[in-house]
Amino acid sequence: SLVVLFGATAGAYGAKLGSDERELILLVWQVVDLQNKKVGTLHKSLVKADNLDLSDQCREVSGLTPEGLGKAEPLDRVLQQFSQLVSSDLKVLGRSSYTLCSDGQLLIRQVLHPETSKKNFLLSDCFYSFYDLRKEFHTCYPSSAAVKDQTIKTMAEYLGLGTDEAEEDFGVWQVKTMVAIIFSMLSEGCNHVFTEPETVKHKYETGPCSKSETVDSETVIRARGLPWQSSDQDIARFFKGLNIAKGGVALCLNSQGRRNGEALVRFVNSEQRDLALERHKHHMGSRYIEVYKATGEEFLKIAGGTSNEVAQFLSKENQVIIRMRGLPFTATQEDVLGFLGPECPVTGGKEGLLFVKYPDGRPTGDAFVLFSCEEYAQNALKKHKEILGKRYIELFRSTAAEVQQVVLNRYMSTPLIPTLPTPIIPVMPPPYTIATGSVRDCVRLRGLPYTAGIDDILEFMGDATGDIKPHGVHMVLNQQGRPSGDAFIQMKSADKAFMVAQKCHKKMMKDRYVEVFQCSGEEMNFVLMGGTLNRSGLSPPPCKLPCLSPPAYAAFQTAAVIPAEAAALYQPQALLPSTRTPQASAAAPPTVTYYPAQAAQLYMNYTAYYPSPPVSPTTVGYIAAPPGAVAAAATATHTPLLPQPGALVRMQGLPYNTGMKEILSFFQGYQYAPDDYNGLIQLSDQARSVLQAPKEWVCL
């Protein structure tokens, strides 16, 4: 038996049904006995929606009114009545089982499943299997129009059925016509058999994904704007009614290993992906989610993995994965199992734990845990921010794709210092220098749109663009490496800066007005180093460490310059293995060190490990050391490396407000003796005497 089902929402109708998230307001159905070609009673039921504001199209097509719908039953009660009336009609016809049959996919996949999921009640099993009348019709009549172009009216016209839509109520005509089409398909000339129904997955299946897999780009979407705590199950619920491929939800992470509000989702076929795109700007809670097309390569980049350890961990299917963050570095498997306790047993005991480590074996403080059921996982999540040792532990839902992404991509890069590109020697003098001094030959732009780039600023400046110094535009970034809305521009003279400030102040850029102020090079450098410039004057930067910034703007393709004082103190040869020839070193100017323009990864490595203040994408910020130390370091011979293992130490986990005084105090009692400097760096007597005093130490 079939139950022919038709429905309508308070919004869009036809091909856009369900695309606007409007609620169901009408259900019409009738039981069809395929064997005996009999039908049961035709039923029409109005549904009371939470929002009775009907669209103009709905009012025109359906003839329904908010007043009439206000007297109807809510959806859960209507679905109960549906089940009861269908069972009663089946008994009358002498049948026992049935399958739904609808006009296309939209009513089942895009209306009923999403709405019931949002209203937190379950659909009966009959709604997880149905026949698409359009597909069945095209199979029976291959010469008819394509499936996507079919409607009830076109199918009826193809068969020459003479039903008049105006004679029947809305919904009743559609069901009667669908029944007539089915009987035509069952006639002796066709003898169509309904054998392969469409299916809706009851739940999302987790699983690993290998980088060697082939992923069809026509099956992948990118979801953007997700709440940061969203899990793969939350995303699957957002796409309820559509079939996501096994392990097809990949949460995207930022450079710190935290979720960035995006996910790549892989569906079983392109038809499901196209339906998913119709949920663009549908809501998850109070947030709307953007849905765009993506590629198979993007999905594999996030979800693919090849680690045997990860594959073995994820080989236990249908497990709930929880991510633990903030574990003490000394935590053992026994510590974690004891923290979770007997109320949330881990699948396989120790085998259900996966600690995330750096390539050198150091723990990152992250771990993934497997649980066999939702109850155990919920018990574990209740321990969020409880204490293990002396640290509170964060617990979140996770996914197989996140396991692979964190373990393989985030932490499998080499440590910070070994990956820094070796400085190269310039073959020509530096093309520009950073402004200093009190001459007010710079302007500050405040209130820029966050999407503004160099081209936008040049267009904003107009004719004054010709008065900008070469490479004189500096975008100010925040502590996350994103545009802060400020920029500094070096002009050729103070008069030019004054004219620009007068001409462009509060001029519009895109949809915002931009404030333009004249300032000095000294003030510009203070802000680029993380200080603040306001009505009360200058506030110094929060730290006095050499800092590098991420390359946020592709327009900057020139080499970054380290000023002479910083180059003398930085001593890159002491940190990096040298690959330069003695001849190249001899030919180098002694005052400037260059980094290659293509070595953009230099900046990203620094920001991935160390917090940096907002600085210009093209410059290296620094605070000069005492003049004596600079002079002494500049006269030193810069040839030896570190011959003694452990001569250089790296401190990790410092509070962000730590200064040099705190670091020197931490190492109190471990200052070098004068003779010990020979084992570290070859220094002159003057340099050794300067660096011997703790107050003169330079922190790199």
From TrEMBL:
Keyword Nucleus part of the UniProt annotation: yes
GO aspect biological process, one term: RNA splicing
Residue span, RRM domain: 320-400
SMART domains referenced in this protein's UniProt entry, alphabetically: RRM
GO molecular function annotation: RNA binding
Ranges annotated as spanning the membrane: none
SUPFAM superfamilies xrefs: Ribonuclease H-like, RNA-binding domain, RBD
Assigned keywords, A-Z: mRNA processing, mRNA splicing, Nucleus, Repeat, RNA-binding
Domain of life: Eukaryota
Chief location bin: nucleus
UniProt-annotated location(s): Nucleus
InterPro entries reported in the protein's UniProt record: ESRP, Nucleotide-bd_a/b_plait_sf, RBD_domain_sf, RNaseH-like_sf, RNaseH_sf, RRM_dom
Any one annotated GO CC term: nucleus
Entry similarity comment: Belongs to the ESRP family.
Name of the protein: Epithelial splicing regulatory protein 2
Gene (UniProt): Esrp2
